[in-house]
Amino acid sequence: MIEMHSHIIPNLDDGPPDMETSVAMGRVAAGEGTTAFIATSHSAESGAVGHEGMQARLEEVREAWRAAGLDIRLELGVEIFLDFDTLEHLKSGRLWTLAGSQYVLVELSYSPWPAYAERALFDLQLAGYMPILAHPERYTAIQEDPNLLYRLADRGILAQVTSAALLGGHGQKIKKVADTLVEHGLVQFISSDAHSPTSERRMPLLREAVRAAAALIGEEAAVAMTTANPARILARAPLYPEPERVEAKRSLFGGLFGKREA
Q: Residue 249: its pLDDT value, please?
């Protein structure tokens, strides 16, 4: 399995405070059968360090994990907080893609939905990037109307659901949204968004989440969300969503899924 969204570089953002903790995360992941990580520290801290500095920090993690007997591939990425300057930062090299690919991992404020989001995402696409929206199940606007993500996916935007969300670790309301997104092909990746080797919602655990997804969409499709699909990032090969619209029904939040028209 491949972790395409993780915080494993120590003493940087809100990930591991030291190398010992990072190594402990690697041990947990190895026990899961994870064979590769893309390190996606937050863009504020990553951009301040710079690409060369982040590569050096990742090499330190590689050496520490290797010394601990961990045979896990590590690649550099960044979790970008999407704003009007994101495209320029990518072009200038202040920020970068996932593992040198055309894929870009982006996140937004959870609430409210930014008015600029769609334009910024589509500008990235026009420039040749393939945006992946991190943890869409956490955004209030998507919780209220999953077809907001359908409209993005219908135009080629990819998305990553968090493993803990599929297991109820963020509460049953968010689990319901995560299940809906998986069932309708609105997310293509499962990743843990790992920050810690011990925090229940932040550990690098994927196996049980894949089982939960398999109950919704079948084993082959669920397994692909942690294997074949993220492998396309590492191979720099394109992946395109195949979304389905969510039918209108009463949501857990008192609104109607599918209430807005495209």
A: 65
Distance CA 190, CA 239 (A): 15
- Return d(Cα 228, Cα 239) in angstroms, integer: 10
| Contact by Cβ (8 Å): 206, 3 | yes
DSSP label at residue 137? G
Mean pLDDT of 14-30: 98
20-29, 231-240, 244-253 — which is least confidently predicted?
Answer: 244-253
- Nearest Cα neighbor of 199 from 178, 170, 173, 160 is 170
CA atoms within 13 A on the CB side of 44: 5
Length of the chain: 262
Phi-psi label, residue 17: left if phi above 0, alpha if psi -120 to 50, beta otherwise: alpha
Alpha carbon distance 202, 164 (integer Å): 8
Does residue 97 surpass a pLDDT of 80? yes
Residues 229-254 have a mean pLDDT of 86
Strands (E), 78-236: 79-81, 103-107, 130-134, 158-162, 189-191
Q: What percent of the chain has pLDDT over 90?
A: 93
